Amino acid sequence: MAHDMETGEIPMTTGPVPVHVAIIMDGNGRWAEARGEARHAGHRAGVASVRSTIEECIRQGIGVLTLFAFSSENWRRPRSEINLLMDLFLTALQREVKRMQTNDIQLRVIGDVSAFPEKLQERIRASEHATRRNNRLILQVAANYGGRWDIIEATRRLAAAVRSGDMDPQDIDEKVFARATALNGLPDPDLFIRTGGDQRISNFLLWHCAYTELYFTPVLWPDFDAAEFRAAVTEFSRRQRRFGQTSAQLRETS
Ligand code: IPE
Ligand code: IPE
Ligand code: MG
Predict the structure, then answer these.
(1) Is 74 a catalytic residue?
(2) Ligand 1: residues within 6 Å at CB?
(3) Quick one: which ligand is closest to 221's CA?
(4) Radius of gyration of the chain from Cα atoms?
(5) Domain-by-domain residue ranges, the chain?
(6) What is the pLDDT of residues 106-126, one digit of tens each?
């Protein structure tokens, strides 16, 4: 769904409900600290918000949900916190695959998973394989993901195709490039949500958020329930997405 220069085709959906929602699930640590608990408790509590958000996506007919679980910069955290996050991810995968099958959810993990423990990598591969034919919701978990990493990986892939003679530099356009990224041609996010109050992208989907509607909320991730998610989608439905056009032009075509 990349922008098409000739037809002027717009890159994302314009409907009142987003097709693709991407979320930076932030604020777990502060949530725990505010209760005098260890940061770990916040990460554990955040799992419930993941579940309610997935359920709400299914209820609303949202097709793709991308959750930022671990950034390429999160390796800078204390080893004990990193280990806890890996354990949480592993147990969540073990526990949730059955539920994904029942609810027709396809799991895709995006990011450089080669840096993860072998056991976790195996579990990721097995969960992706088991759910690959499900299509009610595509759930993408961004793990050891970085937007710049993604752009560089795509560039490497395309450069290799050019070097091997399979592609000419002239063949590279937005559509081809988008297909070479981790999203592999899935639609760009329509709505980006960041919880926890910070207003930055933190190296999330840099290529793909070119025209995404941004929504920031101070609510900490463990407190982000179904009602909070609905509030974000409602706010999205009120926005006018112009993609470079004027409001008058949009009135003419609607
Ligand atoms: C987000 O919550 C979860 C991850 C980054 C894995 P944080 O752990 O960043 O929570 P805060 O921002 O410190 O409150
Ligand atoms: C972004 O949160 C990454 C995830 C939610 C996984 P951080 O809490 O790591 O972001 P910064 O570093 O404060 O921007
Ligand atoms: Mg944070």
Answers:
(1) yes
(2) 25-30, 70, 74, 85, 196
(3) 1
(4) 19
(5) 21-237
(6) 999 999 999 999 999 999 999
Distance CA(80)–CA(25), nearest Å, equals 20
Q: CB neighbours of 40 closer than 8 A, spacing ≥ 6?
A: 32, 81, 84
Distance CA 136, CA 249 (A): 34
| Fold category of 21-237 in CATH | Undecaprenyl pyrophosphate synthetase (3.40.1180)
Expressed in angstroms and rounded, the spacing between residue 50 Cα and the centre of ligand 3 is 16
Which tens digit of pLDDT belongs to each residue from 12-44? 556 689 999 999 999 999 999 999 999 999 999
Question: Residue 232: helix, strand or coil by DSSP?
Answer: helix
Query: Tokens for 60?
Result: 């609303």
Nearest ligand to the C-alpha atom of residue 26:
1
Q: How far apart are CA 253 and CA 87, in angstroms?
A: 51
Residue 227 CA, ligand 1 centroid: distance in Å:
21
| Catalytic residue list contains 144 | no
In ligand 1, which atom is closest to the CA atom of 27?
Answer: 14
